[in-house]
Design brief:
It is a single chain. The chain is of the alpha+beta class. The chain is built from 8 helices and 9 strands. It has a 9-stranded mixed β-sheet. Helix 3 crosses helix 4. The radius of gyration is 29 Å and the shape is globular. Keywords: DNA-binding, Transcription, Transcription regulation.
């Protein structure tokens, strides 16, 4: 006789319960909106840069401005930024903000004010050993810019040490933005433009003693060969600087003054205050 085979059956459906937390669906991030808003802020920042055109040619001007300040992004990349097709990397974002003279948090996220307060800006300049001064400008009419003139008497010969408190505004010069563009002036931002008066004979081929010079105080390092306002071991100069392996070559455009190199530990005594963008040659008639 075959014994019956019994199989245990458990009603899992009736016995088993599953605890499940309620699902919370998070809305998807609208990345296109983020890019659109960034592009709008980028274009707003560029509207105040004299060397950047308002429409056609803006991408070329932006690319050249960033390249002059050490950012090697391609024109395709800057084109995408302006058209809200992409955004820069965070490190590049901070450099772009510095070049345009706006706060990185504002440029990237739209947080806070577009520009830093004057007090904060002055504190940063003091800590970085840049000539301490109030470089804030009066606002001119649309299409114009007021550039303050500082009589720092930059010595272009043997150098001249100025007292730390000797910074005096002589006057404000009002220029049209179109004129600056026509002269090929490319600056970090309009508020960084100011004027100094050069003295000495070492740069006579380029400008003479007493000529007004437009400088960009937003440039505080030698990113490319050019004429700079700088101090070396406490003496103030306006001379041409050339990047060489291991250092900087100081060149006087007057052949009577031989060039010399700054290398090694001497580089610690070099402070770049600004880059000279334009010289107005004066001549007695």
């Amino acid at each position: 006789m075959v014994e019956p085979h019994y199989q245990l059956s458990v009603d899992l459906k009736g016995q088993l319960t599953i605890d499940q937390a309620p699902c919370k669906y998070q809305p998807m991030v609208d990345t296109q909106k983020i890019r659109d808003e960034f592009a709008a802020r980028l274009n707003k920042a560029l509207d105040g840069v004299p060397s950047v055109r308002a429409a056609r040619g803006r991408n070329t001007d932006l690319h050249e401005l960033l390249r002059a300040n050490g950012l090697s992004s391609s024109k395709q990349a800057t084109h995408k930024w302006l058209r809200a097709e992409a955004m820069p990397e965070k490190d590049n974002m901070r450099l772009i903000a510095r070049v345009l003279g706006v706060r990185a948090e504002w440029l990237e996220y739209g947080h806070g004010d577009m520009h830093s307060s004057a007090g904060a800006e002055g504190a940063v300049e003091k800590e970085s050993n840049v000539i301490a001064a109030d470089f804030s400008q009066k606002r001119a009419r649309d299409g114009e810019i007021d550039i303050p003139h500082y009589d720092v008497r930059a010595a272009m010969g043997a150098g001249q040490v100025l007292p730390s408190d000797y910074i005096e505004t002589i006057r404000h010069v009002t220029l049209s933005l179109e004129f600056l563009r026509s002269q090929g002036v490319s600056c970090t931002q309009p508020d960084n433009l100011c004027m100094i008066t050069g003295f000495g004979e070492s740069m006579n081929k380029t400008f003479t003693s007493g000529d007004p010079l437009i400088i960009d105080k937003g440039v505080t390092s030698v990113v490319t060969d050019g004429v700079y306002l700088f101090t070396l071991s406490g003496a103030l100069f306006v001379k041409r600087l050339q990047i060489i392996p291991g250092g900087i070559r100081v060149i006087s455009d007057n052949d009577a003054y031989p060039p010399y190199d700054i290398t090694g530990t001497d580089l610690k005594n070099l402070t770049i205050h600004a880059r000279v963008l334009l010289a107005w040659r004066s001549q007695r008639l």
